[in-house]
Design brief:
The radius of gyration is 10 Å and the shape is globular. It has a two-stranded antiparallel ribbon with strand order 1-2. It has 59 residues and is mainly α.
Amino acid sequence: MDIQEKIIKTFEDAAKPLRTGELAELAGIEKKEVEKAIKKMKDAGSIISPKRCYYDLKK
């Protein structure tokens, strides 16, 4: 399972918007790696930012 898949699973399990630090802790991934993956996923349109510093899956 790659980082993006772990992030998607973590969002699905949490069922709420998360900050990168919370996401890293819940997924068991380093924060820097989460930040890189979030940027790629946001550029691809699979993640949105409902409010500043929070991210969630695009529904």
